[in-house]
Amino acid sequence: MHKLPTIDFTNKRNLQPGSTSWISTAVEATHALEEYGCFIAEYDKVTLELNDAVFQGLQDLFDIPTEIKVQNKSTKPLYGYVGQIPFIPLYESMGFDYSNTLDGVKSFTDVMWPGGNEAFSATVLAYNKLVAELEEMVTRMVFETYGVEKYLDAHRKMVTYLCRGMKYRVPEENETNMGFVPHTDKDFITVLHQNGVNGLEVKARDGEWFTVELKPSSYIVMSGDAAMAWSNERLHSPFHRVTMNGKESRYSIAQFSFLEGIIETPKEFVDEEHPLKFKPFDHLKYLEFYNQEENRRLECAIRTYCGV
After folding, report:
1. Mean pLDDT of 110-121
2. Which of 31, 59, 75, 284 has the highest local Cβ count within 10 Å?
3. How far is 125 from 99, CA to CA, in rounded Å?
4. Taking a C-beta distance cutoff of 8 angstroms, is the pair 235, 227 a contact?
5. Burial, 67: exposed, middle or buried (Cβ in 10 Å; 0-12, 13-18, 19+)?
6. DSSP line for 32-80
7. Is the pTM of this model over 0.90?
């Protein structure tokens, strides 16, 4: 039976770059992303009060009338409102770009609450900034573990964050309990958090699906298709899904890192034993490719899009 590794990001000694404990934590995190494509991070920078405020904010958000929620739109594919889909009736989500900036949060909030909602904006901005710190830490650990840290500054300059709030309602009688279909994330690194309702399932490399159980202070850190291609398939982009088995709605919030520009595999990842597997690609153009109906059913969209 599979179980995701849990890695401690609360111990300040583990988080001093260059220290022995930093290096061992970095190796542990990178190995987990290679083996499972994700791990559970214990992370305490988000206080219990902020955590509770975030999920109360999500409930308030999804209580807004649907005709307002569908105004959550973006010029980027897959960034706006998703819901009212017959084959995943339990699922509804909204997203906004530049989510660790005040402008990004307010551009979303001002559409959802034309009269303003300062409390929601302040809560979500504070939360997203702290989650971005976790993503930046994990990314740095991966680059350092692979010995490609000289590329880190250029990578960081390209990163933008998409925040997506998600609701999975309880299924009614004779209704599917599938919260969301199996898929891989299309980003570089995802940090996912949830209320106390489990439901996330991950597919291991051997094909077995297993449930992920999270404590309130736990986060899922997951590598997406872009990280898999960048690393020449060292990092794994795992299939995952949501199944609803309880009597409570599940709320989750994810922050996805996307890169504005061309992603290229560092030459350090390519040798005789590891020939180049992916051509350089534009991250947002890959999203446009995946957004086409016929490409969503591909077994591995990134390989079809830019595989060698």
Report:
1. 96
2. 284
3. 7
4. yes
5. exposed
6. HHHHTSEEEEE--SS-HHHHHHHHHHHHHHHTS-HHHHTT---SSTT-S
7. yes
Under 8 Å between Cβ of 283 and 263: yes
Contact between 10 and 43 (Cβ < 8 Å): yes
C-alpha span between 307 and 266 (Å, rounded): 15
Residue type, 42: E
Per-residue confidence (pLDDT) for residue 5, from 0 to 100: 97
Give the phi and the psi of residue 188 in degrees, each rounded to 5. Answer: -90, -65
Structure confidence by residue, pLDDT tens digits, 188-204: 999 999 999 999 999 99
Residue among 283, 91, 254, 269 at smallest CA distance from 187: 283
Q: Which positions ≥6 away from 130 have C-beta within 8 Å?
A: 45, 46, 50
What's residue 230's pLDDT?
98
Tell me whether residue 96 is in a domain: yes
Looking at the structure of the chain, the number of domains it has is 1
Task: For residue 296, tell me if it sits in a domain.
Answer: yes
Give the CATH number, domain containing residue 185.
Answer: 2.60.120.330
Q: 231 in a domain, yes or no? A: yes
**Residue 37 sits in which domain range?**
6-306
With respect to residue 165, please indicate whether it lies within any of the assigned structural domains: yes
Q: Residue 12: is its pLDDT beyond 80?
A: no
pLDDT of residue 59: 98
Residues 170-227: tens digit of each pLDDT: 999 899 999 999 999 999 999 999 999 999 999 999 999 999 999 888 999 999 999 9
